[in-house]
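S2.1 Query sequence (glycine dehydrogenase (aminomethyl-transferring))
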Amino acid sequence: MSMNTQGRPTAAVETDGQSTAFESFSGHRGLRLAEPLIFEMDREDTTGVDVEEVGDFDLEIAGLGRDSKIGCPGLPEPDVVRHYTRLSRKNYGIDMGPFPLGSCTMKHNPRLNEKMARLPGFGDIHPLQPISTVQGALELMETLSHWILELTGTPAVALSPKAGAHGELCGVMAIRAALEARGDAREVILCPESAHGTNPATAAFCGYKVKSIPAKDNGRVDIEALKQSLDDTVAAVMVTNPNTCGLFEDEVREIADAVHAAGAFFYCDGANFNAIVGKARPGDLGVDAMHLNLHKTFSTPHGGGGPGSGPVVFSDALKDYVPLPYVVKTADGLTLKEHADDKDPSMGRLVAFHGQMGMYVRALSYMMSHGSDGLKQASEDAVLSANYILASLQDVMTASYEGPCMHEALFDDRFLKDTGVTTLDFAKAMIDEGYHPMTMYFPLVVHGAMLIEPTESESKNNLDQFIRSMRGLVEEAKSGNVARFSGAPYFAPMGRLDETQAARKPVLKYEAAE
Ligand SMILES: *Cc1c(COP(=O)(O)O)cnc(C)c1O
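Output structure tokens follow.
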């Protein structure tokens, strides 16, 4: 084995699986530490803080007194610190390595954004503070709106929705408000087969029937089928562009025209905006409403359910229905318009206050530090990275569609045919290589989908290492080494979990053993 100058091996040490087969005495395996729940480590007689003995006082407030233990775990401080440090090391994140999860845009989050978000004038303010004391924060919202309107080419934006799915809800509610205002009760929303699950879910949540539009062989919306489904019952069409197969809907103008000719609205799912920032403006493509995922396109650590921010941009046809509150200029400076007056057709309020201030700061910091040229370059580099992966892997894996892709490369499982290895197995084996797996089994329109989104923030070195690992795994699968896949992950604290059970019956509450 060759060693580097510090005496460390330069290549992975061969293990045959045997060396990890023995049980350790501690439950730990090397640096993969077993970690119980903090409640399981609890010792009643221990505390990490010195609390003074309390004197005599009446333990009952309003006749209510605690008769059981409070239930907080008792641990010395070093054990608390170790517990959370160990937990944090079990977490895979973009700061650990590439996170090629398609449709999620897991990019590097510049630390500058964090520094800005922690400025006391942004980080320590409260939504109920007098408006005169938060003028800077309102100005930031105003400036962010300006950048969003410039980048999307639209006349209005609602900042308050707190995620992409929430933005979809906001957009479809505006569409419903506009239709109601013209006394037009339409009941159907059309979604392409490849749509993200949140699109039909939003439509159904707003009381619409969902009708599916098929895709063509080239992975784009079948525009003839779309036209045939358009009639005076259709309220809106929801299309993602670039779509969830990583392809640009090149007939998007024609789609918009057909939708408008039928008196319907064009909702665009803008979660994939990272591919086209500075290159194409949704306003020019005929879009009536589109959410942006600030936490995808404009950075911010995300995943595991938060935090997010999903501002929605609107066309002239919908801009009167934007939700409250929004920033307005008055003679005394900036203020939030909190209440609708008689003439205001606003849909009302979607969130308690004004939305995710921390996200606004991070997004604006990202935009301003990149500048318009930098944002455009980020999109170009994201598309280049994805195409580099597509071009480097398509001789051994099966690309689902011909031609170049946008910001993500879609493969399916035809290359695994007769190997006994499934998409799931393949993804689990990637964990043993130190990678977060790509998105699997989505979009549903291709069999055993593998959707890889490298983003612009992976260097060529990182992409090359990823490609080498993927090619290595493909070779292993094709050479019949099924065990490497079916038992994977071998090098993770947990092996295969029952993910269906975990999703359907999550255990969210700790119950002490009797
Ligand atoms: C991420 C995503 C959404 C949902 O956004 P959230 O912020 O997770 O609610 C919707 N559509 C597409 C295509 C997405 O990738």
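Residues 13-18 have pLDDT under 50 and may be disordered. The radius of gyration is 26 Å.
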